[in-house]
Amino acid sequence: MANNNGKREQWGSKIGLILAMAGNAIGLGNFLRFPSQAVDNGGGAFMIPYFVSFILLGIPLLWVEWGLGRYGGERGHGTAPGVFDSIWKHPIARYMGILGVFLPLVVLVYYTYICSWTLAYSVASLTHKLPVADTLGSAVSAKEYLAPYASYLGAYKGDTGDALYYAPPVKAYVFFAITLILSMYILWKGVSGGIEKFCNIALPAIFVIGAVLLVRVVTLDSPTDPAMTTSKAFSFLWEPDFSGLLSGKVWLAAAGQVFFTLSLGMGAIITYASYMKKDDDIVASSVAAGSLNEFAEVIFGSTVAIMSAVIFFGFSGAKEAAGGTFQLGFISMPAIFTHMPAGEYFGCLWFFLLFLAGLTSVVALAQPAVAFLEDELGFKRHKAVITLGIFFLVSVILPAFIKDSLDELDFWVGTFALVFLALFEIVLFFWVFGPDKAWDEIHRGAKVRIPRVFYYIMKYVTPALLLVILVVWGYENLSTVMGKTSVGIWAARAYLIVLLIAHIVLVEIAWKRRRGKD
Amino acid sequence: MSAYGWIFLIGSWGMVTGLVAIGFYYAFCKKD
Fold first, then answer.
1. The complex's ipTM?
2. Residues A169-202: pLDDT tens digits?
3. Shortest distance, CA A329 to any CA of chain B (angstroms)
4. Which residue in A242, A266, A478, B4 is deepest, having the highest Cβ count within 10 Å?
5. Does A298 contact B at CB distance below 8 Å?
6. Which residues of B touch A203 (CB under 8 A)?
7. Strand partners, A402
8. Which tens digit of pLDDT belongs to each residue from A95-118?
9. DSSP H or E run through A468
10. How far is the C-alpha of A470 from the C-alpha of A201, rounded, in Å?
11. Whether A305 contacts A32, CB under 8 Å
12. Measured between CB atoms, does A239 come within 8 Å of chain B?
């Protein structure tokens, strides 16, 4: 990103870079997706494949994406089309690089909308607007107990029972507008003056709020079962089920979670890394940022959401309460907080934590588009941010108003394509650029050497694992997803195709412009 | 919770905390 004086921006400090990168990774997935994945896949035993995947996929891909970004940034490119082109002068490189702008932009469209829900729920919790159901003991099941909260979420989304459309209430527009304006303001202020300053405040706040909620949850008494101790509640998630280690499904779920939580294959890490200085350390800084994300996920994410669900609903009810991101985040957690002593304040804190985590990811997802407009099309920063804001206002119509479109967008860009782009990145860096050059590039400016075994892991093991994940996911999901049809699904597919074509045209314009300059 | 459960919990929490410490040590404290 060039600032308004035409010079490319840089991070102001090393801690600012690490916190911004951690903010990119820490999002709703840490606090909602991880707990439900862990519970569904064997509890404690899930953590073994999870950590193995973190070592074999997560950390190597962090080094690759940081390395690619810094390399491209030195050459004036902050997004994947330009970064890939600076490594391999072949049209395939820049066309594949389009995914590094396209994917975060599409994710941004629905992620920002969901992020605005968390702010709305935070305010609703504080102002006692969330429903208060009967006491748990009088309900037949967790499902019955949670019904008013499911209705509340349905009403917030504007689900009137129509098969095609949502009709969100005015408050949904208001909270979306606040979220959009805040994120655009942060981007407007630039990389160092906006994103870095915001993350320097938001990340410590996330960790303080996470610690407060953790202490509250481990000291909770169960309203229904006096025998439910903290130790017993911990066992729900951490008691190992070793049969899970032999299950391909568990290994895939663990690898997938590592992938999503670290924001790999998205293009956002490349863009953030492009604002590093020439000899800024990659080796340790990327581990610090990635580990902060793991800390938030494994310690706060697992404890706050799951333990409180177990304490309130017992083992059988918690399975239902934690079944899926939206179920856990926007139905079960509000129910828990409304029945906790001083729950309105803890609920407000919980949803505000989600909002901060979501907003740090929103600006990271938006930055590749801003950087592309600036670096490749010569836009000034403010013009680029306004352009993005207008695009955004038009695009959010799809997930906010048209049913089924959000899940369809998420399948294509939030799962499948990420692995595809990550595979291309590591092949490009370690096979086309060259393993020794890539290894040296990652080590430039580092105070510590990566153990040599990772050279072979990054060259052979990580690409092979990515290929396996891609093939198995494709085999398991493609026929099912392609078989689904509805107006919302086809609207989402049409949107993706039109947007992808628009990206291809923009890249062609950018490269023509560059040839004209040469 | 069984002993295995506690080992998993303490091991997992210890590992992520240790990784944060190692990352920050080499990023900020170690001299060239």
1. 0.95
2. 999 999 999 999 999 999 999 999 999 999 999 9
3. 23
4. A266
5. yes
6. none
7. A165
8. 999 999 999 999 999 999 999 999
9. helix A462-483
10. 37
11. yes
12. yes
